[in-house]
């Protein structure tokens, strides 16, 4: 049997997904036995033109991490789609927009001004801003264009599978790779995890009645390590997040932030999460409810931390 | 042509839907901008319904339930208060004008109140203009 051809690419991401991929450790050798990696910018020297020269559908699987927020990323997503039989959105950014997706609270001008003029560490008296094209004596130099709105991979090209996580846990990555190696890929559209229930299903903390009078940020309270974090007033996304990660965060006394995305059939993880959190407030008085909710300082960043571009609203109106 | 907003009204079966019915049978006038959807209780209203309505063509969403204390299911409308307060915080942050999403109470005997609320909301949204869909902008 001919060896499989695998490509890996990073778009708007932090690089953590490539490291997450390497978490499979020596199992990488099992992968290499049956597959050749033909493109992987973080690990190999391959030029974009080499990929462009490959025949269409010559790559078996492309594992794509990162959101799409520049013309370069969009171009590569489209090229890799043409060259690949199967496209996998790997990690929270490719899946839902991830942390870079929170840029959808602003637009391009606001982001550029902040980065090149306003930040305290910036000295730019000439107000020089990056341009997409520059005529130098040697010829034209170009830079990719930054988009106003961050997009997910599936909003850009057709995607067959999703491997969620920020970054995906080793067990999730390997579950997908094993299916690939054995040729037992699930139906198209599957979000590959080993638990389709919420993170709470994996979480060993004790759960009782949820009634909350005050919400705390993690630094404001020393939490009980045995009891459900949400019951203690710490906003934990476990209730609205797909399991399969094994709940490492709640077990390390940190609330789940929702990186595995929504559970099946939920169209907007943030709204789902917000709905559940609002329901546990222990008050019937509008003024008191208002006061309790003052502790939720950043609703968009709390509820839509990894999936703002994939939400119903997609972005803030600025 | 002047802008005629589309407003989705999500009304609870026991108080507000009957209130709207009373407004009709007693021939109260109110603008035709509201489209009514009946739910068993305002506590059934998930924020997803409201966001989805906004992205699907509504310029405003009105949720009406029984007055606090009068819920047919004892405390469904208290849950509505919590959710709508939370949603309002989010939509403020997302740059959606607060007049576009409204929670109010109409009992079965308040046909007048119902038509007044619809008039007021329609007027406010007419001033705001259409809701920018499709993420607001692209590119």
Structure, explained:
The complex is a heterodimer of chains A (about 325) and B (about 140). Chain A has about 325 residues and is an alpha/beta fold. In chain A, strands 2-1-3-5-9 form a five-stranded parallel sheet, with helices on both faces. The mean pLDDT of chain A is about 95. Chain A has helices spanning about 15-20, 25-35, 50, 70-85, 90-95, 110-120, 170-180, 250, 270-280, 285-295, 300-305; strands at about 5-10, 35-40, 60-65, 70, 85-90, 135, 140, 145-150, 160-165. The longest helix of chain A has 13 residues, at about 70-85. Chain A is built from eleven helices and nine strands. Chain A is globular and about 65 Å long. Chain B is α/β, with parallel strands linked by helices. A four-stranded parallel sheet of chain B has the order 2-1-3-4, with helices on both faces. Chain B has helices at about 15-25, 45-55, 75-95, 110-130; strands spanning about 5-10, 35-40, 60-65, 100-105. In chain B, helix 3 (about 75-95) links the parallel strand 3 (about 60-65) and strand 4 (about 100-105). In chain B, about 50% of the residues are buried. Chain B has four helices and four strands. The chains are: A alpha/beta (about 325), B alpha/beta (about 140). The interface of A and B includes residues 105 and 313 of A.
């Amino acid at each position: 049997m001919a060896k499989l051809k695998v490509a890996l690419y990073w778009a708007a991401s932090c690089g953590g997904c490539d490291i997450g991929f390497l978490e499979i450790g020596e199992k990488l050798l099992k992968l290499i036995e049956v597959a050749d990696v033909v493109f992987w910018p973080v690990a190999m020297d391959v030029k974009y033109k080499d990929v462009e020269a490959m025949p269409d559908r010559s790559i078996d699987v492309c594992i794509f991490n990162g959101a799409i927020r520049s013309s370069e990323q969009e171009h590569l997503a489209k090229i890799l789609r043409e060259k690949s039989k199967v496209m996998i959105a790997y990690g929270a950014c490719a899946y839902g927009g991830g942390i870079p997706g929170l840029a959808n609270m602003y637009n391009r001008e606001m982001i550029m001004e902040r980065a090149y003029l306003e930040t305290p560490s910036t000295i730019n008296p000439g107000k020089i801003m990056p341009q997409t094209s520059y005529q130098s004596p040697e010829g034209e130099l170009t830079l990719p264009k930054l988009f106003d709105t961050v997009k997910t991979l599936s909003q850009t090209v057709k995607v067959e599978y999703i491997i969620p996580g920020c970054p995906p846990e080793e067990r999730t990555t390997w579950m997908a790779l094993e299916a690939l190696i054995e040729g037992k890929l699930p139906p198209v559209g599957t979000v590959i995890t080993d638990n389709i229930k919420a993170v709470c299903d994996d979480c060993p903390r004790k759960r009782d009645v949820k009634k909350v009078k005050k919400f705390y940020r993690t630094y404001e309270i020393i939490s009980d390590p045995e009891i459900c974090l949400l019951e203690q007033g710490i906003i934990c996304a476990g209730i609205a997040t797909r399991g399969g990660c094994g709940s490492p965060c709640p077990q390390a006394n940190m609330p789940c932030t929702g990186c595995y995305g929504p559970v099946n059939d939920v169209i907007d993880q943030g709204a789902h999460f917000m709905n559940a959190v609002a329901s546990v407030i222990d008050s019937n008085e509008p003024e008191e409810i208002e006061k309790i909710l003052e502790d939720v300082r950043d609703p968009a960043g709390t509820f839509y931390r990894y999936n703002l571009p994939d939400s119903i609203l997609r972005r803030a109106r600025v | 042509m002047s802008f005629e907003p589309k407003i989705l009204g999500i009304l609870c079966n026991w108080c507000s839907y009957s209130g709207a019915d009373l407004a009709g049978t007693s021939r109260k006038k109110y603008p035709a901008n509201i489209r009514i959807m009946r739910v068993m209780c305002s506590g059934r209203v998930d924020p997803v319904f409201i966001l989805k309505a906004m992205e699907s063509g509504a310029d405003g969403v009105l949720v009406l339930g029984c007055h606090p204390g009068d819920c047919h299911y004892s405390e469904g409308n208290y849950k509505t208060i919590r959710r709508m307060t939370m949603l309002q915080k989010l939509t403020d942050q997302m740059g959606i004008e607060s007049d576009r999403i409204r929670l109010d109470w109409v009992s079965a005997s308040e046909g007048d109140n119902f038509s007044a609320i619809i008039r007021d909301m329609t007027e406010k949204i007419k001033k705001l203009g259409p809701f920018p869909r499709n993420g607001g902008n692209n590119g």
